[in-house]
């Protein structure tokens, strides 16, 4: 319906609706990649959702913890650990339970990460200092992993703080041991120097990891911008910014599948600007383009975020209202029709005689998309025949009711 010219080819209302989960489900695979045509990789859920990958990671960490505790038990059996066996196992138990509790916290937060690293490294340092043997360096290896873990998630200053705190704990406890006079001072000094060298080396590696993280973040942002531009080319109309005809056909196919399964209904509305050719002839194609843009913006503002506004062609737009029956759709489109009279040119003058005719049709389970669009188009044709500037609602079969212009 309507006249198509060379230059003109190509949100939020307040009305009852079902829950927004349908559109949210659709956004789950487009919110991160910036497109509803599934361009790029989609990211859904939280980074710490309990999935198979996280379960495997936790299983490996628990296995590593068990192996470390087992190694400590072997050292205790060979009398290579200072202190009593009961105190040793009490400390191992408290440290292990605390570490597991922190690992199971499902939240990515710098404070949680620092707490994990601090708890891990303090426990490792204490256990290592209880071993007056060269095997102490093997005991300190998990502390290096703790610092590298911090390098993957924290800023450079936070990583250096974690490593400095780890070394400070080692230094203080080592000085206390030396003060008792029951240790090999040379061995302790060599161990302290070796531990410091290990920490410095790991920190430089963490710095490189942090630089790679920054570079990756910058490239990801560039990719997001590129995907956003690509979305506009693939699913958006160049002139109005509304969805294009190709994309809205995909939307209708998906909504039909949902409705046929009895999950949620939807309603379509054909909107045709009245006497649009007169605007192009009287004011020029630039003015006609401006009117199309204004109407698309007005439709986005009138509808909810779960609904769709698409340019069907020329001066004709298609609205897809999710979870909406014809009664509510009639109210919404009448509000849109009334606001259309308020569209004005940039110079400040009103578009003389501009109005919109709208045909509404609700999807009937089992019918084809083509049949639904044909019923909506028939309702639009009826609105034109009845004098334009009105909303006509198609019945389930052939009955049509009209909402005349005010």
Q: How would you describe this structure to a colleague?
A:
- The protein is an alpha+beta fold.
- Helix 13 links the parallel strand 4 (356-362) and strand 5.
- The chain is elongated and about 105 Å long.
- Strands 2-3-1-4-5-6 form a 6-stranded mixed β-sheet, sandwiched between helices.
- Helix 6 (141-153) runs antiparallel to helix 7 and helix 11 (285-302) packs across helix 12 (326-340).
- It folds into 2 domains: 52-227, no CATH class; 241-403, Reverse transcriptase/Diguanylate cyclase domain (Alpha-Beta Plaits, 2-Layer Sandwich).
- The chain has helices at 21-27, 52-77, 85-103, 110-129, 136-139, 141-153, 156-180, 185-235, 245-260, 276-283, 285-302, 326-340, 369-385; strands spanning 266-273, 308-313, 316-322, 356-362, 391-394, 400-403.
Q: What would you call the shape? A: elongated
What is the string of helix and strand elements? Answer: HHHHHHHHHEHHEEHEHEE
Q: Strand fraction band?
A: 5-15%
Number of domains: 2
Structural class: alpha+beta
The stretches of 5 or more residues where confidence is low (pLDDT under 50) are: 1-50, 396-400
- Count of extended strands: 6
Major β-sheet, in short?
6 strands, mixed
The helix fraction, in percent, is 55-70%
Q: Could you tell me the mean pLDDT?
A: 82
Helix segment tally = 13
* Distance linking N and C termini: 23 Å
Q: Gyration radius, to the nearest Å?
A: 34 Å
Q: Which sequence of strands runs across the widest sheet?
A: 2-3-1-4-5-6
């Amino acid at each position: 319906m309507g006249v198509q010219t060379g230059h003109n080819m190509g949100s939020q209302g307040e009305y009852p609706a079902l829950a927004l989960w349908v559109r949210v489900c659709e956004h789950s695979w487009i919110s991160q990649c910036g497109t509803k045509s599934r361009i790029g990789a989609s990211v859904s859920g939280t980074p710490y959702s309990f999935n198979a990958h996280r379960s495997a990671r936790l299983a490996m960490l628990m296995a590593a913890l068990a192996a470390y505790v087992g190694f400590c038990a072997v050292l205790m059996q060979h009398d290579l650990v200072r202190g009593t066996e009961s105190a040793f196992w009490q400390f191992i138990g408290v440290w292990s339970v605390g570490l597991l509790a922190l690992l199971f916290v499902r939240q990515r937060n710098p404070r949680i990460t620092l707490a994990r690293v601090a708890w891990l490294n303090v426990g490792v340092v204490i256990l290592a200092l209880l071993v007056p043997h060269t095997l102490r360096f093997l005991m300190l290896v998990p502390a290096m992993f703790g610092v590298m873990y911090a390098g993957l998630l924290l800023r450079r200053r936070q990583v250096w703080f974690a490593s400095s705190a780890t070394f400070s704990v080692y230094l203080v406890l080592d000085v206390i041991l030396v003060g008792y006079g029951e240790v090999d001072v040379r061995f302790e000094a060599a161990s302290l120097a070796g531990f410091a060298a290990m920490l410095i080396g790991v920190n430089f590696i963490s710095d490189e990891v942090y630089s790679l993280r920054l570079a990756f973040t910058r490239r990801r942002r560039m990719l997001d911008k590129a995907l956003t531009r690509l979305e506009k080319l693939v699913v958006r109309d160049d002139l109005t910014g509304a969805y294009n005809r190709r994309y809205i056909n995909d939307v209708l196919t998906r909504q039909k599948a949902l409705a046929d399964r009895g999950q949620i209904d939807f309603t379509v509305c054909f909107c045709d600007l009245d006497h649009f050719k007169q605007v192009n002839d009287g004011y020029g194609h630039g003015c006609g383009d401006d009117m199309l843009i204004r109407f698309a913006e007005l439709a986005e503002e009138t509808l909810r975020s779960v609904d769709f506004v698409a340019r069907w062609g020329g001066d004709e737009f298609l609205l897809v209202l999710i979870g909406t029956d014809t009664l509510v759709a009639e109210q919404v489109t009448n509000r849109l029709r009334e606001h259309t009279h308020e569209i004005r040119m940039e110079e400040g003058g009103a578009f003389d005689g501009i109005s919109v005719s709208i045909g509404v049709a609700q999807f009937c389970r089992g019918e084809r998309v083509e049949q639904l669009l044909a019923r909506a188009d028939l309702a639009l044709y009826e609105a034109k025949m009845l004098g334009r500037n009105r909303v006509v609602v198609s019945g389930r079969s052939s009955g049509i009711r009209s909402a005349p212009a005010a």
